């Protein structure tokens, strides 16, 4: 009997792109939680000053007379997070082409729920912060952290139907798209025309490469770097370059899957004609057959799918945890935490992420179902959708990101925002999990 190493067991288990995505997001959620705890411990320990100083170290890139200099914090938020946004772009593209958003009848519910889950929290925030300098942060409670939300559902296992998980994924992706548009339109500095035009030129070149059938990743990588740099110089937040670049990546295979199936079957039949117990291993012809099949697999795959597959773990295990470590560390004075929570910014975010998300997501979903505009996710109940609406109130990553943009140069408001985000996300995640675990009734199996 052969004993398989863990990676061999994983290799033998075939995951669909959706299952692979869920696995990556649940991993992200667990690592993200760990790094958030580490950041909070560091920010409230004797190492607080060293922690703060570390992320403000300048890192320079110099080529001849050209120099690009930013703090480590800036490189993480504007540089590494562009890769995160690139992943969001690929996810949006996949969902629209072949995922939950490709079927209009299925997609209408998460789309409407996501819109409700963005508009209502923003309105609640504005009603609480009206007339204060914090009102510019209305985009903060619009976001949903897909990694934390998916992690909560994964912990529930078979207690929630797959269609409900797909509903949350589609909702969060539409939510991400809304957040990207808000950042691009409302949280953009003074726009510099020439760099923006050059960024547009890079994007058009990427589109042209796609149209001409260029599937090699290197040309898109080089043009993507230039696109990011020109976007950085234009005043539009540089991370938007990631989403734009993702739209230009080819997502159609070079050859039809049907022809590959026929060719690979013929090659495997030939491979099986050779002795299986050859002491010298494979002969030259068998090696040639495997290389030919490898080429075929590459041709029926797409650059978009390959990039999403290769980047999901680096994003999950490196980029998002680094972002949390750099941004979640807030110094908490427990003697004044109560007064911080009741500030307009904190209260606006807490009310927006908890009440706003539940009213917006569940309220719009309930109305759409009652009016027969949309249908419940298969095997789900309205009670379960209510629990998912609470999970939509876990803002975290994107909310912190928007807070840094909305309150740029105002550390006090950023602090109040982060207190509100952490408090609301913790409460929403806890209530959503408890509701789905112990209160929501599953649909009886027929």
From TrEMBL:
Alphabetized GO MF terms: sodium:proton antiporter activity
InterPro entries: Na/H_antiporter_dom_sf (IPR023171), NhaA (IPR004670)
Chain ranges passing through the membrane: 21-43, 75-92, 104-126, 138-156, 163-187, 313-335, 347-369, 381-407, 419-440
Keywords assigned: Antiport, Cell inner membrane, Cell membrane, Ion transport, Membrane, Sodium, Sodium transport, Transmembrane, Transmembrane helix, Transport
Position of the signal peptide: none
KW Cell wall biogenesis/degradation (keyword) present: no
Catalytic reaction list: Na(+)(in) + 2 H(+)(out) = Na(+)(out) + 2 H(+)(in)
Cellular component aspect of the GO annotation: plasma membrane
Record localization: Cell inner membrane; Cell membrane
Nucleus is among the record's keywords: no
GO biological process: regulation of pH
Major location category of this protein: membrane
Membrane topology: Multi-pass membrane protein
General function of this protein: Na(+)/H(+) antiporter that extrudes sodium in exchange for external protons.
Protein family: Belongs to the NhaA Na(+)/H(+) (TC 2.A.33) antiporter family.
Name of protein: Na(+)/H(+) antiporter NhaA
Organism: uncultured Sulfurovum sp
